Amino acid sequence: MKMKRILVLIACIMLLMSCRSSMTDIDAFEVVTEITDYDSLFSDKETPLGVIVNLEVRNGIIVTEHGNDEYNFSFIDASTGNLLKRWGKRGEGDNEFIDFGNGFVLTDSLLIFQERMRKMICSVSVTDILDEGRASIATKESYPYTVDFRPLIFNIVNGKKIFAGCFKTGRLGVINSRNEIMECPFEYPFSTEPLAGVMRGSVFQCKIKSNEKQRKTIVQTLASDVFEIYQCSDTALSRIYVSPFNNPPKLRKSGNRYGIDYDESIAGLMKMAVSDDFIYFTYSSLRSNEKERLGNSVNEILCFNWNGEKVRKYLLPIPITSFCADKQYIYGICNNEEETIIYRFKL
């Protein structure tokens, strides 16, 4: 009889632990919305584009970034689906660029990107790009790069450039409006041992986006369920939220080098999009290598507010690879053998 009570007690404890775990899982939401209202906005069947690697939407214009294409950017009308302009050539001629870095920033008036090999931030007027009668001249500004401060990807908020990359100290690199390196006292929210210094950033990679309206920046760690939110004041950067993660990225050693163990680390938070009010992630609980074998399309999008609070989970009628969002729609990429399609999902 005593043994029976012990077994019942153990079962109750295990059930309680399971419930607590499920409540803290990043994809556990009280509100789940299945989206059924959607349409096909754009197809590149008539004008084939390179693979879309990033996209943003602002003021009714979707800007897509391409890999292996003559032009780096395409501009698409978000209401009609019309292809407005293709822009951004590689080269060393007038208004050409050696490279376009990784990712870009789209503000109300500017397209901003890195020319990483030259350590430059380039800004171009969107109006000038779209106006055939104007010359779209880029404004270029250099940024610091040292052995201990190696910026890789960037975003801009409150006049400051916020970089992810490889830094001797700190989680992020911050450069103020005077182009000076600011102190970032915040370290990685998970253990990086045995890695230290700049090696951490080369292994634990991340994505970064900002909200100029709220003066906040979000950092997403790849192959994990970890994200952080920072508040940017006039004088400092403060970390205001870290997700209660269960699956930080795991390391493996090959020879004398460390890297992410994609057999043990989850795919986790994959693609990220932001609007003035919300943060969105595509998500998979599968291991990274397993997810890659099955394909990186997903139909599950997690939505948080800019305080890190869960808002709702969206279930899409079709899987997408990458996406962006505004107040009314999620714009998702779907690839097949014949074409790339941008679908518009009504929120």
TrEMBL record:
Keywords tagged on the record: Signal
Annotated signal peptide: 1-24
Record flagged with keyword Signal: yes
Protein name according to UniProt: 6-bladed beta-propeller
Lineage: Bacteria, Pseudomonadati, Bacteroidota, Bacteroidia, Bacteroidales
